[in-house]
Design a protein that fits this description.
Number of strands: 10
Strand order of the largest sheet: 5-7-8-9-6-10
Distance between the termini: 52 Å
CATH architecture of the largest domain: 3-Layer(aba) Sandwich
Helix content: 40-55%
Shape: globular
Radius of gyration: 27 Å
Mean pLDDT: 84
Structural class: alpha/beta
CATH superfamily of the largest domain: P-loop containing nucleotide triphosphate hydrolases
Low-confidence stretches: 81-102
Strand content: 5-15%
Length: about 450
């Protein structure tokens, strides 16, 4: 049956919780001419699916050869409403119960994989992830306003998409507005030009339960836009609504931002997402490889995790390249192929540093970089710390002082660590073997 094939295809491309909640309940009614009729349990359900998944389903119809098929949603025992190729209903509108405000949600197209289930949590982002979950749950733990900042490709958009997915899954009638700061500014300019600023303000101040604005750093120097957004934040926060803002800069590093606006943005939790550590990168590589039907052994995953740092999109790019090259090579993925791909992604002239060795040792001993840099004197921490310092001195050109800075130690502590490890190498064969394995891994960096 056509719909059975479409559902299978959707199940592969959508997160499991999204599929089970919004696609599984849909019932195939009939395929009449060039129209495919689907029904939902009620009008609200059908309206939500129409708004959020019509284009995705239409794409799957085309993939299965139904190029000119029109998608039609309906409620059981009710008249069906056709949907155009743009995913908009031809006629009719969503009905509301008396006294229920109109759900005029506006949001960017949500990536189906950008859900909480697909987000890889690590030491680098756990506070931001838990804060976003708190905003969805409305438990008040982070206050009404959440500010997230990070570099490019570290997961800000993934988390804001995840918030939108979760909000619509749990409370479909929530009035959510999700847009970039540039889109907000452009909409405000249109409101001024068309003399509809009252409607503009009413939309965000009176008809919004949760506001998500990305890239607020792009408002630098735009005083009027800052004033308008500041007024909206003030109204929403005072009325107990939720606000999530993202930026590539911390609030203090924002230039050309009004002090009152800056203060309003930081009225709740401010959190920074950092680049993932090696252990988190290892899990990211494994997860994203499986998503692309790539089955890599531990050494290959480890090589990718140790060499591709920072922007997570680089990992995705590398895995796409690995898969493409593997197909040309008959499906075989070996270390030479992975090295070739990594060299094209990060470059071949990478200089080995103490920080890179610290990262490697962190993953090998299953301790965090933060623990290696801490004041802890526990053996499970001091041993890998001393080994990392030893390897850094042996394989890099950095001075004792520079190595010490990586671990928050002075040069005398580095000297002591090198002596301790050197003595163990003479007396303990197991340490010698362990260092040989680690040395080989360092040489591959």
């Amino acid at each position: 049956m056509v719909w059975a094939k479409i559902k299978e295809s959707l199940k592969e491309s959508l997160a499991d919780n999204i599929f089970q909640l919004w696609i599984e309940p849909l019932q195939f009614e009939q395929l009449q001419g060039n129209r495919l009729y689907l029904s939902g349990p009620d009008r609200y359900f059908s309206a939500y699916v129409k708004q959020n998944f019509a284009s995705v389903i239409a794409d799957k119809l085309q993939e299965n050869g139904l190029h000119a098929t029109q998608l039609v949603f309906c409620e059981k025992s009710r008249e069906c409403l056709p949907v155009t190729s743009t995913g908009k209903p031809v006629s009719g509108s969503q009905m509301r119960l008396p006294h229920v405000p109109e759900n005029n949600s506006k949001f960017r197209a949500l990536h189906p994989r950008y859900t909480f289930d697909e987000f890889m949590v690590g030491e680098c982002n756990i506070l931001a992830e838990s804060a976003c979950r708190s905003m969805v749950a409305k438990d008040g733990l982070v206050g009404p306003c959440l500010y997230i900042n990070s570099g490019t490709g570290l997961g800000k958009s993934h988390l804001t998409h995840a918030v939108a997915h979760q909000v619509f899954s749990e409370s479909p009638m929530t009035r959510l507005h999700y847009l970039t700061a540039k889109q907000f500014a452009a909409e405000m300019v249109r409101g001024i030009q068309t003399r509809t600023m009252d409607d503009f303000k009413r939309k965000y101040q009176d008809n919004c339960d949760i506001l998500l604005v990305e890239d607020v750093h792009s408002l630098t120097g735009k005083k009027k836009t800052q004033e308008e957004l500041n007024d909206i934040l003030d109204t929403l926060i005072k009325s107990g609504k939720r606000v999530i803002l993202t930026s590539k800069n911390t609030p203090d590093d924002l230039v050309g931002i009004d002090s009152e606006f800056r203060s309003r943005m930081t009225s709740g939790l401010v959190t920074t997402m950092k680049a993932p550590d090696v252990m988190t990168r290892f899990r990211i590589v494994k997860k994203k490889a499986l998503q692309q039907n790539l089955y890599l052994d531990e050494d290959l995953v480890g090589y990718l995790a140790n060499h591709i740092r920072g922007d997570v999109r680089k990992i995705e790019s590398a895995l796409i390249a690995v898969r493409a090259k593997a197909r040309l090579a008959g499906g075989q993925v070996d270390m030479d192929l992975v090295r070739e791909v990594v060299a094209s992604v990060v470059g071949v002239n990478q200089i080995l540093t103490a920080a890179m060795i610290c990262d490697l040792v962190s993953g090998q001993f299953n301790v965090s970089v933060k623990e290696l840099q801490s004041k802890s004197r526990k053996k499970v921490i001091t041993t890998p710390r001393q080994i990392a310092m030893y390897l850094a001195r042996k394989y890099t050109e950095e001075s004792l002082v520079d190595i010490g800075k990586i671990f928050n130690r002075d040069h005398s502590t580095v000297l002591h660590s090198i002596k301790v490890v050197s003595d163990k190498l003479v007396r303990d064969g197991s340490v010698n073997a362990q260092l040989e394995i680690l040395s080989n891994k360092v040489k591959q960096l």
